[in-house]
Amino acid sequence: SAADMPTVGEKVQNPFDTLTSSASKLTPGSAGASVTWDYSFVPTSYSQIDSFDLPSTTPYAASFPTATVADTVFGTVGYTYFDTSGSAFTVVGAEQDIQGYLVAVVFKPPFLQMNFPGQYGNKSGGTSRASIPPEAFTYTGIDSVKGTITITYNDTIDAWGSLTSPYGTKNVLRQKHYEFDLDSIFVHS
Hints:
4-stranded mixed sheet, 6-stranded antiparallel sheet, mainly beta
């Protein structure tokens, strides 16, 4: 439910494993009910703490007026903006540093992450599109750049059970996500 989604003030520890040897030991397991996943053996190469902030406290809030929470996954170079309502958790957009230029990417419609209540067997999908407006660009022979991204996705909550990681055991739903992205960049020379 919406109560299980990130809220303003929460922090999340994201461990990263950069060892290719452990990747071969990971399997998604089978779909179904009451599945047990054990990833307690996965090493941590480094860790990052991300926080969830009130969108109005970020420097890019004006581009995302419907966002209810922003995460710091991009650190000082941008945020991802989410909307948590009683019926869904969606990505409204992101502000990112692209080749040294800060650009707002607003998804229309928002990029659905999960409908509520999330339940075993639920299916969802759709298409979200974002445009990067023309930006001045200083590079030999180029004066401006614009772009688009179109995301087509289908999701199925295909399993539930318990997952053990180096941080403990949690009850989880597994969402199988299929995504096809089409990125286009237009350059004016």
